Here is the input.
Amino acid sequence: MLKWIIRITFILIGGTLGLLLLPQLYELIDLSSNPWLNNPYVSVLLGAILLFVLALLMTDYLIEFLKWMENRLLVAPVGDLLFGTIGLVIGLSVAFLLSYAVESIQIPVITSVLPVLLTIILGYLGFQIGFKKRDEIGQLFSAGRATADKKKFDDNNPQALQQASYKLLDTSVIIDGRISDISATGFIEGVLVVPQFVLTELQHIADSSDTLKRTRGRRGLDILKRLQTERSSALLITEEDFDEIQEVDLKLMRLAKKMGGMVVTNDFNLNKVCALHQVPVLNINDLANAVKPIVIPGEEMHIVVIKDGKEQNQGIAYLDDGTMIVVEDGKSYIGQAIDVVVTSVLQTSAGRMIFAKRK
Here is the structure.
């Protein structure tokens, strides 16, 4: 079917070219006086026959080229095609406008050739610019949308603090739940921001086939509902997104930079990545560690050794708040309550770890 479509197209193009060009060719070779040759019907027929012969020779190559183009277009991202097409249209529009200026030049060769060159060059440049600059163009629109979200929120909530007080919540800190209790105490000021892509990730977790993940996702949604009820005048859900970025954490950092806010998390790795990208971050674990009772070397504690540690003969115990205690030579006391003496304390964003030995 495709072969015949190509051949019929060639026949129509050949008939049209024969009607337009063959009379001029007859004049050049002094055959215009021959009525059997120089008439529209013969010109159309000759042009159609010539192009049909050419079609017989080129059809297979054209079909292979079309299939190759089709495969390339199918695997290309929709965003690349969209922005490339927009750039192509703009380039062709500029070439069309410049053609009017070229027509005023009364030089036959330039007047006929230059518009074609402009169309090819500007069309190609427009497509390439649209294709390769799609991320920057998308960011311009994203920036405008983020500004509109912030302006709308600020207009509706004149008492809310401005840019520096935006606190962007990540998925882990919402599921953790402590952010709700901390917010209720008033220790977190300003506007809590929940991006739509974080909500989407929460929804996917809540819809998971895994029971544990599903429970955690639903808990996160409940926490958000509670925050929305308690902080109805200081909770912003923004539609701002970065389609060119797949990772939720990277999107969150990009949005924090754009809004001039801070990321609120309890993810140790995200905490480190934010530090590398110079994005301000509030780590809930740091806050929890800061309000834990201070343990100093030499202090005595009464603990129950639960399991063995990673190193040889180590035992592991836990305080009521979840702080892990590594007991030197404590493996033999698993399941027993013993008195220990603190030897050192290791404080990190991932939590606090206490090292001790038996009294």
About this structure: The two ends are 90 Å apart (CA to CA). The chain has a mean pLDDT of 79.
